[in-house]
Amino acid sequence: MSEKKIPYKIYLSENEIPEKWYNLRADMKNKPAPLLDPGTCKPLNAEQLGVVFCEELVAQELDDTTPYIEIPEEIRDFYKMYRPSPLVRAYCLEKALGTPAKIYYKFEGNNTSGSHKLNSAIAQAYYAKKQGLKGVTTETGAGQWGTALSMACAYFGLDCKVFMVKVSYEQKPFRREVMRTYGADVTPSPSTTTSIGRKILEAHPGTTGSLGCAISEAVEVATSNPGYRYVLGSVLNQVLLHQSVIGLEAKTALDKYGVKPDVIIGCAGGGSNLGGLIAPFMGEKLRGEKDYQFIAVEPASCPSFTRGKFAYDFCDTGMICPLAKMYTLGSGFIPSANHAGGLRFHGMSSTLSQLYHDGFMEARAVEQTSVFAAAEQFARVEGILPAPESSHAIRVAIDEALKCKETGEEKTILFGLTGTGYFDMVAYEKYNDGVMSDYIPTDEDLEVGFRGLPAVPGQD
Amino acid sequence: MSEKKIPYKIYLSENEIPEKWYNLRADMKNKPAPLLDPGTCKPLNAEQLGVVFCEELVAQELDDTTPYIEIPEEIRDFYKMYRPSPLVRAYCLEKALGTPAKIYYKFEGNNTSGSHKLNSAIAQAYYAKKQGLKGVTTETGAGQWGTALSMACAYFGLDCKVFMVKVSYEQKPFRREVMRTYGADVTPSPSTTTSIGRKILEAHPGTTGSLGCAISEAVEVATSNPGYRYVLGSVLNQVLLHQSVIGLEAKTALDKYGVKPDVIIGCAGGGSNLGGLIAPFMGEKLRGEKDYQFIAVEPASCPSFTRGKFAYDFCDTGMICPLAKMYTLGSGFIPSANHAGGLRFHGMSSTLSQLYHDGFMEARAVEQTSVFAAAEQFARVEGILPAPESSHAIRVAIDEALKCKETGEEKTILFGLTGTGYFDMVAYEKYNDGVMSDYIPTDEDLEVGFRGLPAVPGQD
C-alpha cells in the first residue's frame, strides 16, 4: 500500500478520543481466571469485591463479555486536557539506527503525572465520586500512580490517601511534593497508622517498605473507614479496560495513514500499559482478522512472564488481597536493591497472563544497563527523556529495528512510550556515572518466592 | 463574531509551524539601542561580536530591519518533534474562577527541556554547527536553558560546556543529570577551570555562585578555545527572534477560530518568552492595525521593569560582556536568597525595554507566595504543574479574570505557560509546608545595584 507522507507526530482531534473503552476479555475464548477469596478459595462476587472496590469498577472487573463500555462524558472531558496523546513516527531514531524498519511510538508522558496511569486514575476517581464516596486510598512505589490519582482526586474533589513505599518517600521527595501539591495525604509505608503497618514495623523495625506492604495498608484504611474504597493502578481487568484508550487512539491514528504494525512492543510490570496498547490489535488477532507479533518486555531482575509460574497468588505481601491467577514470582519475591528500573511487581495482569499462556504473545527479559543505554540513545535523538519503565520497550524496539537492518526487512514497529523520566534522575545518574549494575536472580532466588505460593485446590 | 466551538486544545498541523521567524524590531520606530563595547562605549560591529557569538547569530542580532527571517529546514525538522505546541482553552480554570473571561494559554512545556528555551537552543546550535564550530559554551541557573542547549547540541553532535551556578548544581542534581544524559559537560560555577572563576573564588572563597559569574566563565572559555562560541538563552534580540514561533503559532491558532485576545500576559526574566509570545500581536499594534493590552509580569523581588532604571548596563557581574540598554537593577543586584521563583536576572531584553519605555506595554510585579497559590490552583484544575516562572503569568491572568468577574466583562485573556515545574519541587515543598516568605527590596537595596551602573557618555 502506498503511504501518505507521515508527519512526525500524528495528533487526532478531540472528537477522535474514543467514546468507548474496549474490553479485550470479550473476545478471549479462554477468559482470565476469576479473583478468589484467599480464605475460601472461591470466586469473589460483586458484593464481596464491593467492600474493597467501587461498585461500578467491580462491575467492570467482572464483565468479561461486553466488548465496548461507554466512557462517561466527565471522563472524556478530563481526557481532553491531555489526550489524544501523540503517535510519533521515530524518524530521528530510524535514521540514527540506519534501519529500514519504520518505528512508531505512542507517547503517554505529556501530562503532569508523567505517564499513562492518569487514564485509569481519572476513571476510578470518577466512579468513586459518582458512588458518593468521600475518598480513596492507594499505594504507590515510584510515585507515578500516586501522582496520577492525586490529580484525578483534586479534579473531582475527592480525598486521596496514598501509602508510599518508605524508601521512595524518602528518596523521591519530589514525587511526594507533586502529590501534596494536588492535595493528597501521603504517608510513608509501613506506618503506625494501620494495624498491619504496626505489625510489620514490630517484626522488621528498620524496614524501608515494599509495594505489597503499602497495598495492605491502603486496603486496611479503605475497608475500615466509611466512605472510602481502595483503588489500584495496574494488574486488574478494569485498569486494562481504561487503558485501552491508548491502543484505540494508536490504531485510529495508524489506520488514517494505512499503516499496519507488524510488531507491537510494550513494557510490562503489572500490565496496565501493555494491556491497553495491544487491546484493539489483540482483539483483531483473537477474532482471526489480522495477525500481529506482540512482545511484552520485563526486567531480567523481575521476570514474571519469562521465569514465573502461571498460578494463583496474592497480589500483596500482606496476603489480605484477593488471589489472582497470573504469571508470578511469588508475593514474597522482591527484586534486588540494585534494580532501578521500575516494573518490580511480582505478578502480572490475569488477562495478559492468560493470553501469554495461550501463545498469543511473546515475552522478553532485558537487563537494566542495556535498558538505560537504549534510554540515552533514544533521548538524544528523539528529544524525550524516557522513564526507565518505558525504556524496556525502547530496548526491544531498537533490537528489533537492528535485526531489520541485518535482514533488510522493512518491518513496522509500534511501541508504547509510557512516560517520562524526570523523577528518575537518581537512576540516570548511576548510569551516567558508570556505576549501574545488572542483576539476574538465580533459580534458587526464584524458588524462595515460589515456596510462598498459596495452596489453591487444583493448582500444583 | 460568532465563535466556532473551541476545543480544549488547539493543535496546528506540522505544516503550520511557521516557516519564518518574525523580527519585531523591523516594525519599531524607536529601535532598541545597540550593544556597546564596555571599554570604548562604542557600538559593537559584527566582527567584534563574532569573537563571542556565532556569525549568523550576530547577523540576526544586528538586523533590525528585515521583518521575516527564514527558519532553516533542519531547525523546522527539529521543531516537528515537539511543535506546534498546544494552545489551550482553560475551560476548567474559567469554571473554577466563575469568570466570564475567556482564558487561553500557549503551553511550551511539552518537551524534555521543560520550557520554551528549546526554540532558541536548537536555532543557536544549528548555526554553530553550520559555521563548522566544535562546540558552544553557556551558563545556566535553574537549568532550563542548559537542558535545552544540551538537547540541541546532542541532536547536532556539538560539544556543549555548561557553567551551572554552584548552588543550583548542588541543589538541583536532577537537572544536572538530564544535561549529562544529553552528553553535556557541566561545571559548577565559579570553578577553577577559568581565570575569572579562580579570581572570584580567591575573593569570595565560600561563594555559591551567581548567574552573572557563570556567564563570565562561559564567555572566557568560548573566547579562549578555538572552535567555540558563547550562546545565551534570553535577553538578546536573536533569542526573541527565535521565540517568535510561540506568538506566531498562537496567533495562527486563534485566527482559525476568529478569536482576538484583549490582554496578553507573559512572565519576564530576560524577556525571551514574553518577547516571543507578543511578537506578532505587538507588530500589529506598532503598525496601528489592532490594539492589545500587554502585561509583563515580574517578581516583586527582582523588579527590573517596575523599579529599575532604563540605562546601559553590563549583562554579567564579571563585567566582561557588552553593555546593553535596558531596564536594569544594576549588574550587582542579586535577589534575596528566599526568592525561589526564577526570573532573577537583573536586566531585561533591550527590545522589550524600549517598547515598555515607549508605552506599548505594561508591567506588574507579584510576590512569590501569591505566585505559588496561583500555581497550585492552576495545577489542580488544569492538570499541568507549572514552572514557578510561568506561574507569574498565571497569577496575573487569574487576577485579570477575577476583575472580569466583578465587572462582568467577557475579556479574552492569552498568557504564556512557558514550562513545567517538575524540577522545582523544593520550592513547591516550601509552599506546601507554609514556610515560603516574600521579599520586596527596599529603595536602599536597589540603590546599591544602581550605584554599579557603568558610566556611559550621555547617560545619567
Keywords:
homodimer; 460 residues; alpha/beta; Rossmann fold; seven-stranded mixed sheet; 18 helices; globular
Structure description:
2 copies of one chain form a homodimer. In chain A, 41% of the residues lie in helices and 16% in strands. In chain A, the strands form 4 sheets. The first copy, chain A, has a 7-stranded mixed beta sheet with strand order 1-4-5-15-10-11-14, sandwiched between helices. Chain A has a 4-stranded parallel beta sheet with strand order 8-7-6-9, sandwiched between helices. Chain A has helices spanning 46-50, 55-62, 73-79, 91-97, 118-130, 144-156, 166-171, 173-181, 195-203, 211-224, 237-256, 272-286, 304-307, 350-357, 368-382, 388-407, 425-432, 443-451; strands at residues 9-10, 20-22, 68-70, 87-89, 102-107, 135-140, 159-165, 185-189, 228-230, 263-267, 293-299, 309-314, 323-328, 362-366, 412-417. Chain A contains 18 helices and 15 strands. The first copy, chain A, has a domain at 3-16 and 83-114 and 237-450: Rossmann fold, CATH 3.40.50. In chain A, α3 (73-79) runs antiparallel to α5 and α6 runs parallel beside α8. In chain A, α12 (272-286) links the parallel β10 and β11. The first copy, chain A, is of the alpha/beta class. The interface between A and B is large, with 44 and 44 residues.
Please outline what is shown here.
With 460 residues, chain A is of the alpha/beta class. In chain A, 41% of the residues lie in helices and 16% in strands.
